[in-house]
What we know:
The structure holds 2 protein chains of 2 kinds. Chain A is mainly α.
Amino acid sequence: MASIPSPDKAQTPAAPxxxxxxxxxxxxxxxxxWGFLAVPILFYVVIRFYPTGNAMxxxxxxxxxxxxxxxxxxxxxxxxxxxxxxWQVFRNTFLYLLLGTPISLVIxxxxxxxxxxxRFMHGTIRAxxxxxxxxxxxxxxxxxxxxxxxxPIGLFNNALASIGIAQIDFLDxxxxxxxxxxxxxxxxGLGFQIIIFMAGLRAIPRTFYEAAKIxxxxxxxxxxxxxxxxxxxxxxxxxxxxxxxxLRIFDHVFNMTTNNPGGPLNATKPLxxxxxxxxxxxxDMGYAAAQTVVLFVILLIVSLIQxxxxxxx
Amino acid sequence: MxxxxxxxxxxxxxxxxxxxxxxxxxxxVTIEYWQYxxxxxxxxxxxxxxxxxAANPNINVEMTHFPYADYRTRTAVAVPAGEGPDIVQLFYGxxxxxxxxxxxxxxxxEAFPNEMIEAEFFPMxxxxxxxxxxxxxxxxxxxxxxxxNNRLLEAAGLDGPPETLDELMSHAEAMTERDGAGNxxxxxxxxGMTGQDHHWFREVLIRQMGGEPYTDNYQxxxxxxxxxxxxxxxxxxxxxxxxxxxxxxxxxxxAFRAGRAxxxxxxxxxIGALNDSRGLDWGVTELPAGPDGTRSNYSSYxxxxxxxxxxxxxxxxxxxxxxxxxxxxxxxxxLDTVGELPxxxxxxxxxxxxxxxxxxxxxxxxEYANTTLFADESAQRQVLVDMVERVxxxxxxxxxxxxxxxxxxxxxxxxxxGD
Lengths: 313, 419
């Protein structure tokens, strides 16, 4: 207990013992509030802001983890902009976002909307939808990777072959690979989004629906005029969260393509995987930091745009 | 009370005597050894440490191991901070970076004379020399060989594994099986540049077609040539002839272990895993010879080096330990425990080892093996993976794809050596 007054001592190092007792109640309260706030602030500065700043400095340097860091100016960014792989990866990252977010949003809303009206075994069904979200992404990616294999081991292709249809190249194709990797990622995230949507649906006051019923409004109108507008905060939350998730996709891609990470021909490589390879396969830490800064800026811009577009008017 | 006091006094006196005596004779030293985690390697090293400590009672060796994925990062952080190992195990391709960063020191010439190293070790260790000084030495090395499935050979009516590249093609053809729809259900030969095939392509096929993959001590790419084209045509021809399928059963070694592949090119480190595969009747032979009978192979290795943090008594102990783990005795233990090949010719080329049905083909392969000096192994491998995929997935002309690969790899080398 003796250590508790120390924050205020720290705030007023030169003040004599009596200084604290001369403060007003409001001032003391402020002092204590800042004292407690100092802990998370300090934590954030050390754990978040310092490494972020350090990464930004590192993006202007050359470093292979072993020797000294040397200044390179904007060289890493210049290389990045003229790297065709980066632009391919950039496109992939946005494909994950532009396909993943709306598809998962629509599917999870449809499921949540109908699940909300189901009474029979409601809890069990809801839990079943939630299970994939709790499963390790690595285990899930490997199981799906097996599903996608060619004959004689792949589940999907064996099924196709048994009914006489030519097998499909899921992962070994520059056009099919990205959607194939994205599918389990969407599927895995559905559980979470459904739960959030259901909470949002339950939060809409019943009285609106009752009023609509009395007026004899059609189901579609109820959906468009009542349910969706009132779900706006929920939708904003899910859109922002899932876009950040798809922009940072890594574990599904890495585990489903470990033989040739991000392949074939970089067709599935997202930005985070490129950063990982640059840093921990090529040990080019400065270049990797530059890529990280770009990812940070993209995440920031996308989130700001979404918040602005979807905020309450 | 008096008794306790007297005992304490006695204990103090004896330990003081022991201390001064120890200083006079040999100081007790503890040195630290780091390697990445691979069960057989850790077991082998534990045995070596035990033997070494028995012979040098005043030296303790502590071993620390990390998962492979963290290994380089952890050593890079610990050594400059002075908290790292005295002796560290490194992939041979990382050596230049460690020398440049002054994280390791040269081996003392008195304990490791250059003439001894050059006369007794397999010639590939010359890559560990810089400016007349050796910086590291391996305990064991690895090379490639052709694994074959006895049952599938027999079922196809073949009386032995292929000896030449032509036979490789015809044997693989005989062992490939398809279902009614034409899907391959058993491959004659496993392929995939993501496995060991990129080494086979660079150091074996190109040389067998009369080329040299690199010049200028591996700083200049030299496979955008007739020989390179011939090597690529042979490699792509395997799939065109329908005797293999890249990515069959996900991983080449998995297909072979599952008994769904007749032939499989892999490194000596695969021996342990294959020994554990129940019901698999396999054998191993040297890589097939080229059209004019040329043999070639690729070898790689992990080396031991003394770090810059070893000083004084620890340095002396580290030198002694280095001498032991690169001794013939240690190499034989390593071969028996891990299955990796001895780095000294006298141990490798003993009658028994060289004629061993399993180790023999690998050891004989060492005599004509080349070691690629990589600037960035995974990036250089990726270049060849992409080269094949551009042809197979996008229909690019093989010659164009080969030129593009040579250009991309040269850019990696220039980026590395240009600094």
